[in-house]
Model the fold of this input.
Amino acid sequence: MTNTKTKILDLAEQLTQTRGFNGFSYLDLADEIGIKAASIHYYFRSKDDLAVALVERTHQSHSQIFEDMNSAVNTPKKRLEAVIEYFQNYAVNKKFCLCGMMAAELQSVSPRVSKLLDVYFTGYQAWLAQQFKEMGHKNAKLLAVRFLSGLEGSLLLARLRNDPKIVHDALIGFLKS
Done:
């Protein structure tokens, strides 16, 4: 990936996590990076193409993080603790989950982006369900939905109240066996 393309994606990710995907334009990206807006169109013909690239990159990154956790962290409870800490750091940095932010703007994203978001959350939910299953819970799929919902909701409240601890407080109960 070219340096300019990476800069565009990095900035677009940061702006999506702080303002929302509809909260910035190609001109905002160009001004911040110091390039012409036409240069952004060279890499991403449309904002929809940029959205696709962002969701795909986030999905790939998070999938790798979860795969690494499966290898490096020896218990599902500790993996879930690591997930809570990972996303609490979003709140510390006044950011929101990129895919969660885009899902909140679902009516303004294309069907292509919507489908990618569904794939992302389905995979994430399956990984969470596996952790709960390994912890011995019979209702692992239901717990995964609740955890994921609690995570996204707690990120909203943490951001609103400027209190990252809300993420931990909302999710820690899932770790009690």
